[in-house]
Amino acid sequence: MKIGTIRDGAVSLPALIEGDRAYRLDDLLGAMGGVPVAVPDGADAATVLANRELTLAARAAADALPDLVSRGAAPSYPLYSLGPPAPRPRKIVCAGRNYAEHARELGNDLPTRPILFAKLATAIRGPFDDVIRPLEVDDLDYEAELCVVIGTGGRRIPKERALAHVGGYMCANDVSARNAQLGQGDQWLRGKSFDTFCPIGPWIVSADEIPDPQALTVRCRVDGILRQNGSTGDMIFDVATLVSYISDAFTLEPGDLILTGTPSGVAMGQTPSPWLQPGQLCEVEIPEIGVIANRIVAEVTPA
Predict the structure, then answer these.
(1) For residue 186, which of 3, 29, 80, 279 sits 20 to 30 Å off, Cα-Cα?
(2) CA dihedral sign of residues 98, 99, 104, 106
(3) Are residues 97 and 180 in the same domain?
(4) Are 154 and 276 part of one and the same domain?
(5) Of the candidates 36, 49, 35, 38, which has an alpha carbon nearest to the alpha carbon of residue 5?
(6) Are the C-beta atoms of residues 150 and 166 closer than 8 Å to each other?
(7) Is 42 found in the same domain as 112?
(8) pTM of the predicted model, to two decimals?
(9) In which domain, by residue range, is 68 found?
(10) How far apart are CA 118 and CA 181, in angstroms?
(11) 3-state class (DSSP) for residue 160
(12) Nearest residue to 195 via CA among 260, 130, 113, 287
């Protein structure tokens, strides 16, 4: 099941994806009839996967979707109307240097335990929204990543049960301002959390459709040129380990996001560094999930 969040005017609503169109979940449930659950105001894709009744209703709608589409029983929306599947997660926890070749390209030792940092919720951006390069940044970097969406929360989750707490997966770009992150005294929160520095999407693929999160390809392209091409099988700490390790310290809540690290090929690891520039299109692709594509724009100087 692919479930996204569409923007309809000033309202955001969960929607199922079929082909190149999105269908509002409330429209589908209404067209089906007899479904004893309502989509609450303010719901989004992550909300649906965090609520058992809504998840079951969404699965029923997904099963009925081809027939509903063939009958024209529900209006559809273009994919460019999609916003972030999780617009305001409570937590965005990220794993640093979680691919060996990425650690080596930066001259770092391999970590012996997960390196964790956070991004702020105001960094969240939709799958096709612009990413703003801040006025003081000239070393803007990309990091293509698999993003885990927590479906069932918990504390001290055992590794062997960790994947059962995952609601789904999506693409993410851990956009980074390198000097702000590393050149001013390890200010990771600042360098990683400028507004718009966390585009996600294009939708959430439910966990049942990703039986092995360690068998996915993660790519980044800039203006169509391949910059990163890695496999989640190369993670130092796999998804189950990350979920368990993180939950030892923080209670994971439904809708929380975990960015699982990036493969080699980032701009900082190359000489000269091909930093992201205004006008460029940065894409993150996980073929089993989809593609996010974000244009880089320069921040406008305040009047």
Answers:
(1) 279
(2) negative
(3) yes
(4) yes
(5) 49
(6) yes
(7) no
(8) 0.95
(9) 2-82
(10) 12
(11) helix
(12) 130
